[in-house]
């Protein structure tokens, strides 16, 4: 067990380590994924991935026009 000044310093270090990071991963993910499939609601990074997604997952459907 630490006492006195060591204990206070250890508590400060632990508080700094356990502090929440600025921004969240969900916010970063939402910023990165701007396109989504209207059929299955999967989020994609760009229209090229949307076209690939349609050819592999929805072959009978036509991909939507690029309106992003």
Structure report:
This protein is mainly alpha-helical and 68 residues long. The chain has a domain at 24-61. The protein has three helices and two strands. The chain has a two-stranded antiparallel ribbon. Strand 1 (35-36) and strand 2 (43-44) form a beta hairpin. The mean pLDDT is 83.
Features:
mainly alpha, MBS1/2-like, 68 residues
Report the mean per-residue pLDDT as an integer: 83
- Helix/strand/pairing class, anyone? mainly alpha
The percentage helix is 40-55%
Radius of gyration: 23 Å
Write the layout of secondary structure elements.
Elements: H1 5-17, H2 25-32, E1 35-36, E2 43-44, H3 47-57
Antiparallel strand pairs: 1-2
Summarize the structure.
Residues 1-27 are annotated as: Disordered. This protein is mainly alpha-helical and 68 residues long.
